[in-house]
Write a structure and sequence with these properties.
This protein has 144 residues and is mainly beta. The protein is 3% helix and 46% strand. Strands 1, 2, 3, 4, 5, 6, 7, 8, 9 and 10 form a 10-stranded antiparallel beta sheet that branches. The radius of gyration is 18 Å and the shape is globular. The chain starts with 7 loop residues before the first strand and ends with a helix.
């Protein structure tokens, strides 16, 4: 096994906006870094870094850490997170697991839940028509 299989890293700038129309909620979020690993042998992709998610309506925020795989050992796609009520600064939930597999949610009341994200239904995103998008929105900026 060669230790210099060459990697590429991409730092994503800006933030995303997710609107849950049925709840009237808007979530702003930053983006993790993306890494292409072992590009000269068997390439694979991982996410790394910190992501912040905020919802002004609910007053909750989440600090999510995407952990990159250590050089020796360790697991791929590991993530940890902490959900807080922003005004009171109280932690309501902690999360750990793999972002593309099973996540464990531990709530402040001691309750624990597991979610297998591979079994969740996939919902198509809805995107505003290009003529209604701002200059720097993804699909509009792809035109130029």
């Amino acid at each position: 096994r060669r230790s210099s299989d060459l990697s590429l890293g991409v730092t994503m700038i800006g933030e995303g906006l997710l609107c849950l129309l049925e709840h009237g909620e808007q979530y702003t979020f930053s983006l993790p870094c993306a890494y292409a690993r072992s590009i000269l042998t068997v390439p694979w992709v991982e996410l790394g870094g910190k992501v912040n998610v905020n919802c002004a309506k609910t007053g909750y925020s989440a600090a999510i850490t995407f952990h990159t795989k250590p050089f020796y050992g360790g697991k791929l796609h590991r993530v940890t997170a902490e959900v807080k009520h922003t005004a009171s600064n109280t932690v309501s939930c902690r999360v750990q697991g793999e972002w593309n597999s099973v996540l464990e949610f531990t709530y402040s009341n001691g309750e624990t839940k597991f979610i297998d994200v591979t079994k969740l239904p996939v919902t198509r995103k809805r995107v505003r028509p290009i003529e209604q998008q701002g200059l720097f929105e993804a699909r509009r900026s792809e035109e130029h």
